[in-house]
Q: What sequence folds into this?
């Protein structure tokens, strides 16, 4: 059940992607499609939003994946961001349906925050 | 994992040389498989970015290998786990569609494992099936189950037997 994407200029967002929590054939996700690349803070907020969609059990099962996604977002922010074509999954062996995915489909994501808006580590 | 299985490149996440050797191993195995299948011209690799925006390699094993066949809209992605964090016997795969937008849809086989002498042949088996048939057939206790690889096909690769 992907989020409805916001309207963007000319219907052609420059930056697009999604994060999602897989769960045996169904998924809960948060997507972006924007004219400006989402910053580290915005991406971390999306992770929080995704986490809020999960049940307590789903959250617990994906706690490690969510933390690895957050760590990746912070790392990417220190290296200029994550480019289009990045596709990552964090799960556990033998539990393939319990995982967190990140896809950067177009443009950039996880770009550094402006200096006065950097998230606390 | 049997007693004979051995973890390959156990320090790949901290040792650049080991990481590059592991990458090379996946690449060489893949090239051998597509060559054997006569499909080497159809596939390109990698198709997933493994760099940050400033060009720095990510080198986190996620993925350590990827390949894409454009005319069929199918891909393969291998995620290599840190043996210090995950059990070496753990190996899984799934088939999924990577994007909800029809024009970008790629049906993708994803294999996740610790790289061991036992897991590598299983991963090769999955890859070869994917190259030659675009589907995965699981064999368990002499019973064959065929999956036509719709979205969300998945299973523990350990059920594969020679």
A:
């Amino acid at each position: 059940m992907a989020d409805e994407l916001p309207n963007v200029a000319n219907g052609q967002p420059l930056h697009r992607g999604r994060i999602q929590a897989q769960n045996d054939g169904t998924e809960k996700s948060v997507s972006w499609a924007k004219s400006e690349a989402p910053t580290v803070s915005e991406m971390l907020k999306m992770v929080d939003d995704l986490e809020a969609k999960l049940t307590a059990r789903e959250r617990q099962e994906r706690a490690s994946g969510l933390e690895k996604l957050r760590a990746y977002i912070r790392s990417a922010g220190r290296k200029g961001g994550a480019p289009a074509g990045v596709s990552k999954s964090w799960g556990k062996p033998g539990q393939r349906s319990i995982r967190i995915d990140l896809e950067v489909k177009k443009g950039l994501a996880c770009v550094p925050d402006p200096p006065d808006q950097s998230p606390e580590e | 994992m049997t007693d004979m299985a051995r973890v390959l490149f156990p320090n790949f996440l901290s040792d650049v040389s080991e990481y590059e050797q592991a990458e090379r191993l996946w690449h060489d195995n893949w090239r051998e498989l597509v060559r054997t299948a006569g499909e080497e011209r159809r596939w390109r690799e990698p198709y997933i970015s493994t760099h940050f925006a400033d060009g720095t390699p990510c080198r986190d094993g996620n993925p350590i290998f990827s390949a894409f066949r454009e005319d069929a809209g199918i891909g393969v992605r291998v995620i290599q786990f840190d043996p210090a964090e995950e059990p070496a016997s753990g190996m899984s795969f799934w088939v999924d569609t990577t994007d909800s937008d029809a024009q970008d849809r790629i049906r993708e086989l994803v294999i996740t494992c610790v790289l061991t002498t036992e897991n590598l042949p299983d991963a090769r088996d999955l890859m070869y099936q994917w190259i030659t048939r675009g589907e995965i057939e699981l064999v368990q206790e002499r019973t064959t189950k065929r999956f036509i690889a719709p979205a969300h096909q998945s299973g523990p690769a350990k059920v594969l037997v020679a």
About this structure: Chain A is about 30% helix and 35% strand. The CA atoms of residues 18 and 31 of chain A lie 4 Å apart. The longest helix of chain A spans residues 63-78.
